[in-house]
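Full entry
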Amino acid sequence: MNPVNFDALPPLSPRAAELLAVKIEDDDAEQRLLSIISNEPQLAARLVAVANCAANGAAASRIASVPQAIRRIGMRQTMQMATGMMFGHPVSARLSDQAREQLWLHSVSMATACREVARLLKYHDGSDAYLHGLLHDLGYMLAELTWPGALERVCVFALERSLTIEQAEREQFGREHGELTAMLLEHWHAPATFVQVHRNHHLFAGRSNSLAGILCAAESIVSLDEFGCGVFGGTVNPFACLARPREVVESLLLKQLKLEQRELDRLLERMLDNVTEIGGLGRSMAAA
C-alpha cells in the first residue's frame, strides 16, 4: 500500500489550538468559544444542525444562531463536539458521503460509550472521555482517505482470517487505527497527552482507570450487534461483519471493567436507549 502522505492533508485550523486552550471554568469561556465558532462558518452551521436534530428536542423551536446552539447543547458538550469536528472534518470532508456518515456515526457511538463508562467508573474527567471517543476514528478516516475502501476490506479480511480488527489492520495497513490516529494528531501538533491516549491504546484493555482503557471498553460496547443496528439504521455499517452478540460483549466488559452484572445491564440498556439520539448527532456532525 502507498504510505500516508501527510503533506497532502489540509492544515488544521489555528482555531483548534485556541479552542483547546479554553477552560470551561474561565469567566470568559463562553465569549471565547462563541468567537472561535463564529469565525468557522462550517463549524457554526454544523453545531446549529446538531442543536436542531432530534437528539436535542425535536419538539423545541428551531434555532438559527450559534449562541442559541451553545445554550441548547450546553457549554461543555459544545466544546467537545467543536473540538472533535475541527480535528475530524479536514479528513472526513474528503471522503465519500457514505464513508463520512459511517465514520461519524461510529465516532459519536464511541464518544457516548466513553462518557457512559467514565460516569459509571467515576473517572475524574468524563468530558475528556467523550472528546477522545470522538477522536478515536481519526485513524479510520485517514485510512479510508489514503486507501479508499480500506475499512470494508480490513473488516472482511479480519472475518475471513479469524483475526481481531487490530491484527487485520497491522496486516493491511502496517499499523493499528490507534497508531494512525496518533500519527495524525502528531502531524497537527495536538497535545502530547492526546497522542499518548490513542497510540497503542489496545494494550490498556482492562485498565479502566485510564482514558486508553475506557476507549477499549467503548469499542466492546459499540461492537454489540443490536446497538450497531439501531445507530446505523439504513446506513451500511462497515463494522457489521465484526458485530458481537450480547453474551460475548458482556463477557468482555465484565473482564475489562470488573463490574457487577446489574451495573453492566444498566450500562448497556442506557446505550441501547440512546441509539436514536446517537444516530441523529452522528448524521448532523457528518454534514458536508
Remarks:
- The domain at 95-285 is CATH 1.10.3210.10 (Hypothetical protein af1432).
- The chain has a mean pLDDT of 92.
